[in-house]
# Entry
Amino acid sequence: MTQGVVIFAFNNERIDYLAMAAWSARNIRRHLDLPTCVITDVTDTARTADFDQVVLTDPQQIQQHRYFYDYKASAVWHNTNRSSVHDLTPWDHTLVLDADFVVASDQLKLLFDIDQDFIAHRMAYDVTGFTAFQDNNWFGTYKMPMSWATVMCFRRSKKAQLIFDTMQMIRDNWLHYRQLYNVSENTFRNDFALSIAMNVVDGHTLSTPAIPWDLASITANTKLTQLDPDTYKVEYVTGDDKPKWIVLKQQDFHAMGKQALGAIVANPC
Amino acid sequence: MDTNELISHSRARFDHHQARTVLKEKYQAKLTFAHAGGMWRAGPELLVLLATVPPGDAVVLDLYETPIRVNPEELRGLAMTRWQEQMNAWLVEYEESNRNR
# Structure
């Protein structure tokens, strides 16, 4: 069974997702020793040289805007074709990572040993402890449990195909599902679609299998710097206005602040 | 770096409480391992359970509540090794972080 990592990278006017993905591919090779594939619309081969495979595709017909807190501005957000990964992946067993997910350890290797057709994170946490993440781990008026599309591992299978087909159905009828689950956010998110799809495919039992650890997240209102290739410093201000910092050493995390990650990618240690 | 940033930088303190919380999360993940088609978390609960199971084959529920047929001695050996390795690494990082100010 072939294995590999897929990263989606569609740049917008502010964020160079392809540069993040290329930097991530180098981290993946170092820690996971797995081939990488980028799904992108960038045709410049020099920019995709870090990947073992390149799948060229359109970002998708639906364009939406998202406000990026760290840039204090809106930008086009190409995120609606994640559900096509089952058809686009070159591998039988695929790990899908967001371009802003930082691989700093070999922890994700374990996902390939889990005997499940599809698996994702159920819970995320803020490493600074500043936000409780209630609004991120549940969504909508009825507090639907979130499944995070940041890290997804799936085998080419009937179940995975069903989940991705259902995600596409939800994306194509987002207004209906948004009203059904009473989601206040306008913007379509893959996390919403994945959460609803996994629950539908599992017969609305809210018992979908999850990755057996939580997703470490660094929000956009922190200062993130790299101390060495796998050590990161996170600086933040607490609720009582005290500046604090912690260090993440050989720990994977989701960098929600694209500006800070972009600066690291531009000048890595 | 301007003056305000320098002052803010010098005032910043290492967040010991949060560092401990994050370390716990990190090592909870690292205590997870695969064996015999199941997923396990090395720790007192699994080690004690395996110590009480008679020698030979046994069926134990893994992290996904899936019954898995295992050799208890073999699984206990793996769990003990994983647990000791990760607890030692946890202690080293814990002591390292205690030195931060």
